[in-house]
């Protein structure tokens, strides 16, 4: 097996001694993973105070269940996360709370029913085949930036399935816009923690504002165009246009719709692209697992291209995706703020506290996951999966705010892997260490260059 360095999550935890407030804020700006206390990787609940504000890190599955499900009404999305995301996503489904969230969720839920998701498999397989053909046309020995390639593939899928395909969107510019916007979110989060006023300037702000204006402008244009030209398509834009607030009967205005479109475009393609990027990285490190997936794909599809009806047979491939999401959860920390005092096990947490669920840490707790750093898709065999706590694995969150795109993402990642793997072998440089960086999502800090070889 090639000796490829595995990014070591433990390296990202701070030294034994807790960081002072300033060092902590600096760590949040640089990489919020470095600001996680070491104890959060060891105990179910860890309390800290930062500039007079309580921060509670919860990694134990019982307590996570309390936060996300049983006492979910005591929490709202964290103010720091809202400060980071709302300038771009407004009060859309991901950032809204209460009734406003509820009716937006109800409005879009039908698009994510399993029968609708099944109908999306054809465009998912087509987008994957386009990537495969692009790679097959490269000169031998070429290297691709895998993160970028996966973003492009999942972007095509989200635009095709949710927006009925909009050739007019400039994929490269939108991707750059999202990266530029996310680059300074560490600052917004740190400033919220420091309770700095909303107008406090910070590095990268102008660039983020330009990116946000571009992204919002593109989507507003799209909504206006749909209103003007109409369409028979029963897609996300149609659902949002038809949605009515159950109390006031009011429809969404163009800005509300654009907020949600941008939410779905970002939440719906970047996360899955990152999962696939880490998946190819882990499979390159585990050729024996790659062989096993290839055998499964061959037995489902034979020598013909994979068909939508065959994706459900790819059990091991889906398990490999689940295991990737355990080791590299694209949303590594889920954050909430308490709206009232709440009891978490033995501990009482007051209103206004920041409650953080470092999913990355829960996913590597040795009591839940023996030999936690090992990549082993068998962990998701039916028997061990059933025996585990429901909140031991939560890459998609849980409770009423669980990711609405869960089924979509799992089918999509499975379909893309199963289309690309049989045609091509992807290998990083053996000495390459991608590193881990959190920018709301979990990215390889140094990108993911991979050599592409035909099989
Ligand atoms: C591997 C891929 C994905 C991962 C890891 C992921 C992760 C998550 C997580 C953790 C949340 C909950 C955040 C919280 O509770 O604060 C969430 C929410 C959400 N996700 Fe995903 N997601 C993925 C793919 C998708 C896709 C494909 C879509 C859409 C097509 C999507 C759309 C959303 C939306 C709209 C929400 C907000 C739901 C609500 O608040 O009601 N996600 N996602």
Automatic annotation (TrEMBL):
A GO MF label: oxidoreductase activity, acting on paired donors, with incorporation or reduction of molecular oxygen
Keywords assigned: Heme, Iron, Metal-binding, Monooxygenase, Oxidoreductase
Origin: domain of life: Bacteria
Family matches, as InterPro entries: Cyt_P450 (IPR001128), Cyt_P450_CS (IPR017972), Cyt_P450_E_grp-I (IPR002401), Cyt_P450_sf (IPR036396), Cytochrome_P450_Monoox (IPR050196)
Binding-site list for heme: 403
Keyword Metal-binding part of the UniProt annotation: yes
Keyword Chaperone applies: no
Cofactor(s) of this protein: heme
Pfam families hit by this protein: p450
Family recorded in the similarity comment: Belongs to the cytochrome P450 family.
Name assigned to this protein: Cytochrome P450
Record organism: Roseomonas indoligenes
């Amino acid at each position: 097996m090639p000796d490829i360095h595995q990014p070591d999550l433990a390296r990202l935890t701070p030294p034994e001694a807790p960081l002072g407030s300033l060092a902590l804020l600096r760590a949040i700006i640089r990489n919020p993973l470095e600001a996680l206390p070491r104890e959060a990787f060891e105990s179910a609940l860890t309390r800290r105070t930062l500039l007079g504000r309580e921060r509670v890190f919860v990694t134990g599955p019982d307590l996570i269940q309390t936060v996300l499900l049983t006492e979910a009404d005591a929490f709202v999305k964290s103010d720091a996360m809202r400060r980071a995301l709302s300038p771009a996503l407004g009060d859309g489904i991901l950032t809204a709370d209460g009734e406003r969230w509820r009716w937006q969720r109800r409005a879009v839920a039908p698009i994510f029913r399993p029968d609708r998701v099944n109908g999306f498999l054809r465009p998912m397989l087509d987008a994957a085949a386009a990537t495969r053909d692009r790679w097959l046309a490269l000169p031998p020995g070429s290297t691709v930036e895998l993160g970028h390639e996966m973003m492009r593939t999942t972007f095509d899928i989200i635009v095709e399935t949710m927006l009925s395909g909009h050739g007019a969107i400039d994929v490269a510019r939108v991707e750059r816009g999202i990266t530029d916007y996310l680059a300074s979110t560490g600052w917004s989060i740190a400033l919220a923690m420091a309770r700095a006023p909303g107008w406090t300037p910070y590095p990268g702000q102008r660039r983020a504002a330009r990116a946000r204006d571009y992204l919002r402008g593109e989507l507003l244009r799209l909504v206006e165009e749909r209103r003007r030209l109409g369409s028979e398509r029963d897609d996300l834009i149609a659902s949002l246009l038809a949605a009515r607030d159950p109390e006031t009967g009011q429809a969404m205005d163009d800005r509300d719709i654009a907020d949600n479109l941008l939410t779905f475009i970002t939440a719906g393609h970047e996360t899955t692209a990152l999962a696939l990027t880490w998946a190819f990285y882990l499979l390159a490190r585990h050729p024996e697992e790659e062989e096993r997936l290839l055998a499964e794909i061959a037995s489902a599809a034979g020598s013909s291209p994979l068909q939508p009806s065959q994706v459900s047979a790819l059990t091991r491939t889906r398990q490999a995706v689940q295991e990737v999401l355990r080791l590299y959860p694209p949303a590594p920390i889920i954050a909430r703020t308490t709206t009232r005092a709440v009891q978490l096990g033995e501990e009482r947490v007051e209103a206004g506290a920041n409650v953080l669920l470092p999913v990355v840490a829960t996913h590597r707790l040795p009591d839940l996951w023996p030999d936690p750093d090992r990549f082993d898709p068998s962990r998701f065999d039916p028997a061990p999966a059933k025996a585990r706590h429901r909140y031991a694995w939560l890459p998609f969150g849980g409770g009423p705010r669980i990711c609405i795109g869960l089924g979509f993402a799992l089918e999509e990642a499975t379909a893309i892997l199963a289309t690309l793997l049989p045609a091509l072998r992807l290998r990083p440089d053996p000495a390459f260490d991608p590193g881990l960086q959190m920018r709301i999502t979990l990215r390889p800090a140094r990108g993911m260059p991979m050599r592409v070889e035909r099989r």
